[in-house]
Amino acid sequence: MKTIRKILVPTDLSELSLAGLDCAHKLVSHRGAQIYLLHVLARQTMPTPTAESALGKFGAACEHSLNSELEQFLTEQTKRYENIVCIVRRGEAWREIVRYAREEKIDLIVIATHGRTGLAHVLMGSVAEKVVRHSTVPVLTVKPQLIREALLKEDDIEE
Predict the structure, then answer these.
(1) How much is the CA Rg of the chain, to the nearest whole Å?
(2) I need a surface site. Which of 27, 105, 115, 143 has the fewest CB within 10 A?
(3) Which domain holds residue 22?
(4) Where are the extended beta strands (E) located within 42-151?
């Protein structure tokens, strides 16, 4: 069995998505593996190439500032953990997650799933599902504690 040295944990900055970080940390706490916490910003679409070039240095400075603020936020959220590297990328979330895992030779992706089903799943799509489908790296999906508790309550009501 392959030793897990690098774990990728994607986050959308929600409390629920950080459940993947808790799980990854428990997996590696005594093994010294590196955890990469990745947030993907949706790519901003410009109406025309002219508008994009008109932003020039100002646009680049804004993006750099936004990346710095996000990295600072992620660092604040991960203070209690060790061996965490925070990464911010732009693009379509599932594609960037799969791409980063391939580029950095990640051994395992741990991703929290909101557990949507039915119409909500169809309308919203699922980043976790697309990552599982397209990744060449093993993917562990984690259902956050809050969702597990809600599902247990629903099961109690149905009985």
Answers:
(1) 18
(2) 105
(3) 6-158
(4) 84-90, 108-112, 139-142
Angstrom distance (rounded) from CA 126 to CA 88: 20
Query: Does any domain span residue 85?
Result: yes
Longest dimension (CA), the chain: 62
The CATH number assigned to the domain holding 37 equals: 3.40.50.620
Residue 39 has pLDDT above 60, yes or no: yes
First vs last Cα of the chain: how many Å apart?
Answer: 42
In a domain, 132, yes or no: yes
Residue 139 within a domain: yes
> How is residue 45 annotated by DSSP?
P
- Could you report the per-residue pLDDT of 19-28, keeping only the tens digit for each? 888 888 888 7
Indicate the pTM of the whole model.
0.74
Q: Flag whether 1 is in a domain.
A: no
